[in-house]
Amino acid sequence: MLISKHFTRKMINAFALGISGLFTLIALLGLSWICSMLFSKGLARLNLNFFTQITLSPGKNGGMLNPIVGTLLMNMLALLWGAPIGILTGIYLAEYKPLARSSVIIRYVIDIFLGTPSIILGLFIYQSYVVYVGHFSGWAGSFALSLLVIPITAKTTENIYQMVSPLLKEALLSIGMPQWQFIKFIILRVINRGILTGILLSLSRIIGEAAPLLFTALNNNFWSVDLNKPMANLPVVIFNYAMSPFADWQEIAWTGSLVITIWVLVINILSRSLITRS
Description:
By secondary structure, the protein is mainly alpha-helical. It has helices at residues 2-42, 48-52, 65-96, 101-115, 118-133, 138-162, 166-174, 179-190, 192-206, 211-214, 234-242, 247-277. It is built from 12 helices and no strands. The model has no long low-confidence stretch (mean pLDDT 90).
């Protein structure tokens, strides 16, 4: 009887492992197919001109300098707006009001934001800012992307803050350290890498977002770093070029997709290394 039960458990375990391995293999094959296609089609235009020339009309040897610069500007501004708000929200939830009804509501709203399609946030900024000022702009694009940064950094900060040992807090407060100094000590000495990881994860999320930028920053085929005007960005340019009938534009779109993929890969590797060290 015992042998029969043991044999049954081993068979069920082997079946579960086999199913898990099969689906893992399917996922890896799909990922390998995507990566091989990106590299095979994207390497053709990956040269110095891609990073030093602006977008040009079909048939000319242009690049994506202006979309790259526009993407970096709006992403950095989005982190500048969204990251401090998210970090302070996470500290509030973890330290000041962890069990209050207001904290429960804030966590619920953060979860909703995490699951909200980015195009909805773009429409919100379009209605509340773009319509008000009367034109698309890089500012609007950064505001839309910052709404994606806030919930990620807030959730990460709260989670990493809760991992701090209560004994450390009790020891510091017992010697008379004020609460604001304790929070400063924790952020600067203990969870700084965790917070930086949350910022990097939010950057990897927004760097390829096209939907919110279609309604806020739109696009610009010319060189411009004026944030008060429509601004070129990689995701929208890739979308426009991929949908165009011109073969050279489609090739540049593949190269742009490869560059964004490499960026996201590097950011995620850096995030993983910071998590491991933390």
